[in-house]
Amino acid sequence: MPLVIWAKQKDKIDGSMKGKVYSFIEKLQKDDKNPGLHIEPMHTPMDSRVRTGRIDLNYRAVLFKETLDQLATYFYYGAWPHDEAIDIARSSQLQVNNVNGVLEVIRKSPAAKTSEPEVVPPYVPPVVELPFTGPIVGEDDKATYEPAPATWENPVKTRFSREALTDELGLDVELVDRATAAATEDALFDVLADAPEWQANALLELAAGSSIGEVQEKLALGRYVNDPEETEEEKIKKALKHPASRMQFTFIGENNEELKQVIEGSDFDAWRTFLHPEQRMYAERRHSGSFRLSGGAGTGKTVVLLHRARMLAKAGRQARIVLTTFTTTLAQSLDAGLTKLDPDIARSNALGVPGVLVGGVDGLVSKVIHGASDTEQREAMKDVFGIEGAIPGKVLDAIDARHQWEAAIRDTPHQLGNELANSIFLQQEYETVVLPNFISVKDDYVTVPRAGRGTPLNRSKRLDVWKIIEHYRYLNRIEMTCSFVELAHLATAVLRQRSAHGQERVADHVLVDESQDLHAGHWVFLRELSDPRPDDLFIAEDSHQRIYGQKVPLSRFGISIVGRSRRLTLNYRTTQQNLAYALGLLKGANITDMEDDAVPENSYTSARVGPKPEERSAPTAAGELDTLAEYLTHWRKEGVALENVGVLVRANYQIGKVIEGLRERGIESRTASGKGESGVPSVMTMHRSKGMEFIRVVLFGISDYSLPPQHQISNLAVAERTDALMRERSLLYVAATRARDGLVVTWNGKPSELLGKK
């Protein structure tokens, strides 16, 4: 039975061809001599191993036939219209790069057949730009987002010599010449679209500021030594194991479902089989302690976590692995992703049980609380609050907690001004200073360090703050309520009691996604799950996306990542144009990571290109709905599957208005929790969209009265107001980076100040 090795294609396979390609590969795996496949050699090819096969009457596949381990092995390169496929097959060659040992397919242009090879990607049908007939607005209201004008210098040309790129990295000489000749950034991206996966990645990293040495490290590009004693078969087998080869080639086994998933999910789910060498390194490398992996949206942090969970599970059959994140929705996404990656991976349904346990961190807290004995609960209450009693059974949500703080402020005599006597400041003080230090008496609060808190407090103000905190706790005690943050500290106290009595910690490895959104209570809890040991905590963070948690240094909780922190910089989801727009929303902001180190402003780049984001204004809310409806109508006519479109708003109340407004205009839509239907777009809050991705996204209602919400920033001290505005900007960044391709931003009346409009 022949083997098939699949080459990752840069673009999604056309829908009408998926089934035919699947059928062709399936038949090829069963019998490559099937006459219906028309597997034929070429006349005078560059590579004698090249073959073509019939997909249908109009399309042919290009393959390379090699014998590996005495089995016929076909490298599937792609499918093209008949004449194009013949030309590509005749001029293409499968080879091992003689500089770095990476397996690649190259193609020589007619003018270069006696000199250097030309790299050619699989054929991508041209995109036909349809005239836009949608939103009826004045010309002054139409705008396509343009980055700030600047003189562009080609970084590949100015920073590197031709010899360094070809002789040290192994880049194709003709590709290098085309890249260095690019006069604009868009022209450079056009060149990279024609390059093999690893070469495009290398040039993107170089253009973004990386050195040749850094690129070699990220792509695992060592010096290749050509052994004249090795056969071509041996060289190819060795090259297939190279991390940079594995980002483009993968073996398709006899599992037909796996084959189908690779073909049908070749864009969204390619991470299951094609890992970037840097991602693979972080997924598989062992560490002497905790490790943090940071990176912008779409750089593959979650991908790394999933592969790492599988690696740890396979390495230690009895390993107890916790895979967790901030929200239940994101945890469900992790769970589904892990199942797709490896449906046979050992699972766990309880803390302390071997296997991978996936859950939101608050859900894990709940497991500990509900599993605690009466004695453990009473001891925990004493540790956290300094009182005897059982842990309250009713949990305060965010709104009820705010009302409780407002009641405590009203009922307590104090001399605090509005900037301090407000629910936001007091809740943050309570959750980042009082609870993590397990303070239950006034004297301890007056003397505790408040590192990281932006607004200073003298002794007199601290005493007034403490009186309000005491009253807040009193109100909760009367109503038998407890916040999620308090529960996290109570669960921590339970775990500490058990450790003090000699009980074993409940996890060997803890993997944390979206860690920038965790609060101090989460961190003290997560630290207690596992003993400090090699590979204890693996933490994924994106400081650009901090929309919930308070920024607190991990070292405060006994989590040391000194010397064990790295950053992913290449975005695989968002186009370069959308990424530039999203990062522009954060321009000038002082963004720091969890350890308060500055995040470079231009530290991310994208592997994809697409249309420029569009901004649309309307005079009224009804006019903005008209704009949205006509965009959706236009996209439907273009052939866009509207179930892959997300309409994102700032607040919950806007969801119903958008759904009803679209219905009045003849378009059905649904909420995020609604049943997915073909041709029906989703309407959800920006918060809810976190962790999701869409082919096209509309950021709707980005007006000055809705973003930022005025009730969340009024009467705040400077430090807290700055932080609140930063969260809103980060929220916009999160929403904008949900788009794979098209991004549209709309508003009515005046645009939000966060868009930076004059």
List the helices and strands and how they pair.
Layout: E1 3-7, H1 15-30, E2 40-41, E3 50-54, E4 59-68, E5 71-81, H2 82-91, E6 92-96, E7 103-107, E8 142-144, H3 155-159, H4 162-169, H5 173-181, H6 185-192, H7 197-207, H8 212-218, H9 232-240, H10 243-246, E9 249-252, H11 256-264, H12 277-284, E10 291-295, H13 301-315, E11 320-325, H14 328-341, E12 355-360, H15 361-370, H16 374-385, E13 394-396, H17 398-411, H18 423-434, H19 442-447, H20 459-479, E14 481-483, H21 484-500, E15 509-512, H22 520-529, E16 537-541, E17 565-568, E18 570-575, H23 576-584, E19 605-608, E20 614-618, H24 621-638, E21 645-649, H25 652-664, E22 670-671, E23 682-685, E24 694-699, H26 718-736, E25 739-748
Parallel strand pairs: 1-5, 10-16, 10-17, 11-12, 11-15, 13-14, 15-16, 18-19, 20-25, 21-23, 21-24, 22-23, 24-25
Antiparallel strand pairs: 1-9, 2-3, 3-4, 4-5, 6-7, 8-20
